[in-house]
Automatic annotation (TrEMBL):
Belongs to the ELP4 family. GO terms for biological process: tRNA wobble uridine modification. Residues 1-23 are annotated as: Disordered. Residues 10-23 have a biased composition (Polar residues). It is found in: Cytoplasm; Nucleus. Keywords: Cytoplasm, Nucleus, tRNA processing. Its main location: cytoplasm. The keyword Cytoplasm applies. GO terms for cellular component: cytoplasm; elongator holoenzyme complex; transcription elongation factor complex. This is Elongator complex protein 4.
Amino acid sequence: MSSFKRKTSTKQGENPSGTKLLPGSSSVLIASTGIPSLDDILGGGLPLTCLQVILAPDAHTGYGELVQKYFLSQGLASGQDICVIHDHPRNFVEGSMWLPVSSAHAADDDQEEKTEGDDAKIKIAWRYEQMKKFQTTVTSSDQSGDNFHKVFDLTSKMPALVIDNAVAKKQLTFLDIPSLEERPIRRVLEQINELLGPEETEPSVRKPLRICVPSFGAPVWGDVEPKDLCYFLYTLRSMLQRHRHACASVSLPSYLSEESWGGPGWINKLGWFSDACISLSAFSANPSLSAIFPSYHGFVHIHSLPAPLALVPPSDKYSSLRGLSSSGENNLAFKCMRKRLVFETLHLDLEGGVSERRTT
């Protein structure tokens, strides 16, 4: 019997605050978007070094910016560094949601859903009453000591004291959009490059950095053309790949999120220039869809998913909502309740049969 023994460390280093390892990987760290169901769609969370693009083509809603605020609030609550690029960054942060006042408030929406379910309850055979309830989304839990997932309350605004403390500790950085004479896109990319610091060749021990860019390409950015937007996304993504401690989330205005603005294949291009690209197509512009799907506020369309150091996105294997482990991929939808935003599998209401699940 050989006496050779492999030298291994008995204790692995702790992951940076608010991060954990990507499922199936021993080296890729992920950060939460602040929405557990969106994390599930991404394969567990948004990997560091990756760029996420959120599209919201409906001009009457602000779901794209709402996702950005979740991304921002999760970073602050987890003790990570945040950089907000906006024409009024302070106002944008002040409008973000925050943690519920008490733990009892965190379960209010669950109780609300239960009440709605009780109202619509129908009599069934007694042998089926103890069966597990049909689930359309993943559960969200805020365990003590767990900084990866925090439960946020849309009715609670971020306290000014939290913002002031974060700015004083340089945890929160504001970048105003430069004037049009300074070529704002190139100038912002230069500022991001300075903020990221020198290129990293070894696994980073730095505090994770989240870069939040709401409404990129809005009129304050000047006359943005498709090539300018592609250049910004491509350059930002290249920067992130050289810095293992950072990730970014960019949302586009409604008119930039439509195929007609950039020409044929525009949405596909946005998916190619980003690691994750998701559209939130609200029903507000189409009353007939609201009548057909009264339980939802819009469809979720996936254009690309992060696959760091892999050929296939981990989401294909680990996402419960997408359901690729079964016969086909589930259609997805979202709804914004009083206290939270949720992504769910799309199914018909009682009129069409509660058990019917359509796949693409």
